[in-house]
Amino acid sequence: GFSADDFYAALHTIAAHYGGAGFARLTYKSVPPCLSIVSAQGDVHALWRLDAKLCRRDLWCVVPIAGEDLADASGRSARARRRENEEVRSAKKHELEVYQDASDEAYAHCHRLLTENLRERHGVAPVHSLEELLDLRERLGDDVSVYLVAREGKRDEPLAAVWLFRHGRTAWHMQYSATSAEGRRRSA
């Protein structure tokens, strides 16, 4: 692993290179400690030594999956847990199925849902194009997954989708999730 001095040398070299190329600013995002295999923050220490300016802090929501009672460990209120249980019962009533699919068609469905959702709800487009999603699927293999939700027997009309990245052996990161208007009505 990198020592604090190694991080300092690397970041100093990178900053000098890009500064020499005419860049006035370099943005660095550190790996959140919850996703690190080894708990160390040599990069953060090196940034402090380089007089870096903190421009933002990201909030991470981490949910333990194995070995813990999620209802108790989550810190959610009883009301939030009841609402979640109601959503699950509603989804079951609507006979929805969740499935993983790595096909081009599944990725196209995911991107379409995402595009429609972001446009309708926020007036923006996804950061990644469908071609980029497919390229990342090829590059990352089993470390990227698409899960879809559809009515049983209607996989050609998914109501919701999520795009996940595996980070090492310890965590999954949800990059995108989207639900159609009908999917929201059916608790997809």
- Percent of sequence in beta strands: 15-25%
Query: N-to-C terminal Cα separation, in Å?
Result: 43 Å
**Rg, nearest Å:** 21 Å
Overall structural class, as computed from helix and strand content, comes to alpha+beta
Shape, please? elongated
Biggest pleated sheet: 4 strands, antiparallel
Mean pLDDT: 85
Largest sheet strand order:
1-2-3-4
Tell me the helix content: 40-55%
SSE order, as H and E?
Answer: HHHHEHHEEEH
Q: How many strand units? A: 4
Structure summary:
The protein contains 7 helices and 4 strands; from the N terminus they run ααααβααβββα.
How would you characterize the overall build of this protein?
The protein has 188 residues and is of the alpha+beta class. It contains seven helices and four strands. Strands 1-2-3-4 form a four-stranded antiparallel β-sheet. Helix 1 crosses helix 2 (42-49). The chain starts with a helix and ends with a helix. The model is unreliable at 67-73 (pLDDT under 50).
